[in-house]
């Protein structure tokens, strides 16, 4: 009879579970979720392992104690398209969000366990021995003795058929998992954007060092010419001093740019979490990486559909509503199917004049039924928690409208800045050409004795400033382009082609020199 009851219990449980799609599909859905890092394993294999850390490696908790451990020994070249993969593997802030995804998965699996029956096994003595002697003063009652080995095992299977808190808790956990994944995508995009900006800043520092070195070379030639003219009696001491002053300014500029380069290198190494003795190098030149191939309206619409921040707010609304329903469930009835089986075995006798130690007895019982519990009154606690969570859901709705307006403002601001930066590139390029031609003419005038060294020095300084401004304008444009791609979630960047714009330029010497140094990366219309 007991076996029949147990079979009935199992069949009834499977029937109840089949009525609920959450049981049958939830665990499968969790396991089939795409791992955020699965798609990059192939790309990581192609990277240099010297610049990759292992997750939870001993280096995470190690502090260098010797100067040679933090001394730069290795330089690694990296490309722009490698930044995201290096960040995913190395950056510990991003790894934290990966751990949060695993935590959310564990919480969801924990909440799904409420659909399963629980089995509680208890045992009193495995075995236990009882011995006692009872003494009586009355002559009518004899003294008795107890000597017995015994053990009792009880098993209870409990299955909640009706549990109002179960579905809201599972829904809240599932939304929390999706929110964790969105948060990971958000922080990854933010760190990738910051890494690209630091990459562009390092490019800019490298280009500015080249400009400073060329300025020093030009100033040294100018100083030699001034000294030769002074020694031959054609020039003056003032011209020599002016040439020395310009050379000193160029050297100061070089020193500043060298410092900027070192700062940019260590800044990029920090966000990529390179080992202590490794510094990144960039072999590429500063150039326009592309054109934004979407209108403002298309960019705004894309930002609305691609920004996980809005999705997280919607998930917050759903989570708070689920929490509100779970709070109300505290004062709603719970109906459970319970099956309790117990077995008792004993050897010996109790309260006998001469107990038989070989006397054995056993019993088995099985009880099946439906239990119900209902916490009818809790002083208003459940209703208060319900109103609290509903209020938080309304707050999230207001935050959604605020965030939507903020996203549009951010997209418009970056889009307009990008438009201005795009116009600044040909303007600053034209300035470089004019400054180079002015310097060339000033040198010719100076050699002919028409002008003074002051004019050459001024034109040399103007050329250096214009080349630096051009590099800054291209760097600013690239940073804004990466920022707009981050804001919209699009990678809609049209690649650029190099072209030589030499219209109405009779003397192409300065233009060719600029082209050779990659100072005019203009895009084809």
Q: Provide the residue-averaged pLDDT.
A: 80
Label the structural class: alpha+beta
Order of strands, main sheet, comes to: 2-3-6-7
Uncertain runs: 1-34, 37-45, 498-522
Helix coverage percent of residues? 55-70%
- The tally of strands reads 8
Largest sheet: 4 strands, antiparallel
Number of helices: 13
Percent range for β-strand residues: 15-25%
The ordered string of helix (H) and strand (E) elements is: HHHHEHHEEHHEEHHEEHHEH
How would the global form be characterised?
elongated
Rounded Rg = 40 Å
Distance between the termini: 87 Å
Tell me what the structure shows.
- By secondary structure, the protein is an alpha+beta fold.
- Helix content is 59%, strand content 15%.
- The chain contains 13 helices and eight strands.
- The chain has helices at 2-19, 21-32, 41-45, 67-70, 83-90, 92-112, 166-231, 237-271, 296-306, 308-328, 381-447, 453-488, 509-516; strands spanning 74-77, 118-134, 144-162, 278-281, 291-292, 334-352, 360-373, 493-494.
- Mean pLDDT is 80; it is low at 1-34, 37-45 and 498-522.
């Amino acid at each position: 009879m007991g076996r029949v009851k147990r079979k009935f219990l199992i069949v009834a449980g499977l029937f109840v579970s089949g009525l609920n799609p959450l049981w049958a599909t939830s665990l499968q859905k969790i396991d089939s979720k795409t791992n955020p890092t699965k798609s990059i394993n192939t790309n990581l294999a192609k990277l240099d392992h010297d610049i990759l850390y292992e997750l939870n490696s001993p280096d995470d908790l190690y502090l260098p104690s010797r100067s040679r451990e933090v001394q730069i020994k290795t330089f690694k070249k990296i490309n722009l398209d490698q930044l995201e993969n290096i960040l995913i593997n190395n950056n510990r802030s991003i790894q934290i969000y990966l751990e949060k995804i695993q935590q959310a998965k564990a919480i969801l699996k924990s909440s799904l366990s409420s659909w399963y029956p629980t089995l509680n096994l208890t045992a009193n003595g495995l075995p236990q021995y009882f011995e006692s002697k009872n003494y009586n003063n009355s002559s009518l009652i004899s003294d008795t003795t107890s000597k017995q080995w015994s053990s009792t095992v009880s098993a209870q299977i409990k299955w909640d058929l009706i549990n109002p808190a179960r579905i809201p808790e599972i829904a809240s956990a599932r939304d929390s998992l999706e929110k964790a994944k969105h948060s990971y995508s958000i922080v990854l995009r933010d760190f990738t954007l910051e890494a690209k900006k630091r990459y562009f800043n390092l490019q800019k520092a490298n280009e500015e060092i080249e400009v400073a070195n060329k300025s020093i070379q030009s100033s040294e030639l100018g100083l030699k010419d001034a000294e030769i003219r002074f020694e031959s009696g054609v020039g003056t001491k003032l011209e020599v001093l002016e040439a020395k002053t310009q050379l000193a300014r160029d050297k100061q500029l070089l020193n500043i740019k060298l410092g900027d380069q070192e700062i940019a290198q260590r800044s990029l190494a920090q966000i990529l979490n390179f080992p202590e003795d490794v510094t990144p190098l960039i072999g590429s030149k500063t150039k326009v990486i592309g054109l934004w191939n979407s209108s403002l309206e298309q960019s705004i619409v894309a930002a609305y559909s691609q920004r996980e921040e809005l999705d997280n707010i919607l998930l917050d609304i759903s989570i708070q509503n689920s929490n509100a329903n779970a709070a109300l469930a505290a004062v709603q009835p719970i109906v459970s199917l319970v099956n309790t089986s117990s077995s008792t075995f004993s050897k010996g006798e109790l309260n006998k004049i001469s107990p038989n130690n070989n006397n054995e007895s056993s019993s088995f019982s099985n009880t099946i039924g439906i239990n119900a519990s209902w916490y009818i009154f809790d002083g208003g606690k459940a209703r208060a928690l319900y109103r609290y969570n509903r209020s938080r859901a309304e707050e999230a709705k207001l935050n959604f409208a605020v965030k939507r307006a903020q996203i549009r403002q951010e997209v418009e601001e970056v889009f307009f800045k990008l438009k201005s930066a795009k116009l600044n590139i040909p303007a600053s390029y034209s300035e470089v050409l004019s400054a180079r031609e002015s310097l060339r003419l000033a040198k010719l005038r100076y050699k002919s004795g028409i002008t003074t060294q002051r004019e050459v020095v001024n034109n040399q300084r103007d050329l250096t400033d214009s080349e630096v401004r051009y590099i800054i304008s291209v760097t600013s444009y690239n940073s804004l382009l990466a920022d707009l791609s981050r804001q919209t979630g699009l990678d809609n960047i049209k690649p650029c082609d190099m072209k030589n714009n030499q219209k109405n330029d009779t003397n192409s010497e300065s233009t060719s020199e600029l082209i050779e140094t990659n100072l005019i990366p203009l895009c084809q219309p």
